[in-house]
Specification:
Number of helices: 15
Radius of gyration: 24 Å
Number of domains: 2
Number of strands: 3
CATH architecture of the largest domain: Orthogonal Bundle
Strand content: under 5%
CATH superfamily of the largest domain: Intergrase catalytic core
CATH class of the largest domain: Mainly Alpha
Order of helices and strands: HHHHHHHHHEEEHHHHHH
Shape: elongated
Helix content: 40-55%
Distance between the termini: 76 Å
Length: 290
């Protein structure tokens, strides 16, 4: 023990590690760490999933890489690899915070010895011919009055759903044809140029009283309205986030270069930007024939 102290280590408090479970750490993590994250809603949902699993009741003293690997393999039999990777990322970060900031003398982070499942292939789903028209036509019977405008803006601007719903009237500059997004995924504000179509959508959107937001609808209400809309329109396999993929691909098809598209979409890593780009083979063939 003296040699360990000389090396800067701390003696293990086995009583604390035996009395505390992974669930105890995850609940504290949900209360103290998650609220500071922009993806708080998503992480709260994933934490609930982990807390319902038997691994949450394992004491920190018995929490080993083998236990986490069993959890990984069980979850892989139920959900996709990307979901399991997100869940394990939360566990990894929670254990690191516990070791470095909360005074839990874990000898190591057992997640370091666990191999993450291989990430799935990126989605390549784009809007097929006629699907956008079907969706907009089905909007006529939707109770969500903002839905058609949100869909059209998503395709024209590549904004995320959260960015569309937090867009403020004071940040829209009709003369400069731009909109300032203050709340973005990476935390960095960006100014998005507006196409003629996007500009007309905003102009036609009625202002609701003294509200500061352009679209007065909650994220959950929009999600439910989108799912109902797809069923009415007979469109399957299309996620709302796929509209962002569609927009980025259209930007490149219109001739915009990489810096211009990255400026609009907010991507700082070009590798991620290229995963959002799905050129249509027939479009490329048409260019080669010229």
């Amino acid at each position: 023990m003296e040699a360990e102290l000389d090396r800067g280590g701390l003696p293990l408090d086995n009583r604390l590690l035996r009395s505390q479970t992974l669930a105890d750490l995850l609940k504290r993590y949900a209360a103290e760490v998650v609220p500071r994250k922009r993806s708080a809603d998503r992480e709260v949902y994933l934490l609930r999933v982990i807390l319902r699993h038997p691994i949450a009741r394992v004491s920190l003293r018995r929490l080993t890489a083998a236990e986490i690997a069993k959890y990984r393999d069980h979850r892989l039999s139920l959900v996709k690899a990307d979901t399991v990777r997100r869940e394990l990322a939360i566990v990894r970060h929670c254990l690191e915070v516990a070791r470095n900031e909360w005074g839990f003398a874990l000898p190591t982070n057992p997640m370091q010895q666990v191999k993450l499942p291989r990430a799935g292939n990126p989605r390549e789903r784009r809007i097929n011919t006629g699907e956008l028209e079907k969706l907009l036509a089905a909007c006529e019977t939707s109770r969500c009055r903002w839905l058609p405008a949100v869909i059209r803006l998503a395709v024209e601007t590549a904004m995320r759903r959260s960015e569309l719903l937090t867009m403020r009237w004071e940040d829209v500059n009709l003369e400069a044809r731009t909109v300032l997004l203050r709340n973005t995924k990476n935390g960095l504000p960006r100014t998005v140029p507006l196409s003629t179509e996007a500009l007309n959508v905003i102009k036609d959107t009625p202002r609701c009283g003294d509200t500061v937001f352009v679209f007065v609808v909650s994220a959950n209400a929009l999600r439910l309205a989108w799912e109902r809309l797809k069923r009415r329109a007979g469109v399957s396999g299309l996620r709302f986030h796929d509209l962002r993929h569609e927009a980025v691909s259209r930007f490149f098809e219109k001739g915009l270069n990489v810096p211009e598209v990255a400026m609009i979409s907010g991507h700082r890593d070009l590798r991620v930007l290229f995963r959002y780009t799905h050129p249509k083979p027939e479009e490329v063939a048409a260019k080669l024939s010229k």
